[in-house]
Amino acid sequence: xxxxxxxxxxxxxxxxxxxxxxxxxxxxxxxxxxxxxxxxxxxxxxxxxxxxxxxxxxxxxxxxxxxxxxxxxxxxxxxxxxxxxxxxxxxxxxxxxxxxxxxxxxxxxxxxxxxxxxxxxxxxxxxxxxxx
Length: 132
Ligand code: HEC
Fold this sequence. Notes:
By secondary structure, the chain is mainly alpha-helical. It folds into two domains: 1-29; 31-128, Cytochrome Bc1 Complex, Chain D, domain 2 (Orthogonal Bundle).
């Protein structure tokens, strides 16, 4: 009797574990190689216009410092990682570019709103300045 209860509990716990795993895996944001390996032609630019563009287009959700505390953040269901965190900035410029301008679900697509390649890369450069 005792053992069968234990077995039921273990099976339920294992179920939750796999559900959580499945969620983590399915939530992975895969960036196509084409983007991942893209070179940032403005990597050495000292133009800080990216800061202004970030403030206009991104801070409403991500917050001024990228903490995810913008005024629209409370209405979002998808958690945002801190843009200045090591995990986020460990990505290539191309990965940041893809996530920022192609987006997915609650992370909007900005291809139309920010249609200049230079502006896009300057925003990527600005995100690098958020490093902690
Ligand atoms: C409407 C709210 C909103 C706006 C505006 C917004 N974002 Fe996001 N952003 C999100 C959400 C939500 C996520 C998490 C998406 C996910 O993980 O599926 C996200 C994720 C990201 C990521 C991925 C970070 C990681 O975890 O690797 C980057 C990079 C990013 N945003 C950059 C930007 C930039 C740059 C702008 C402005 C051009 C911007 N975002 C504007 C909501 C927003």
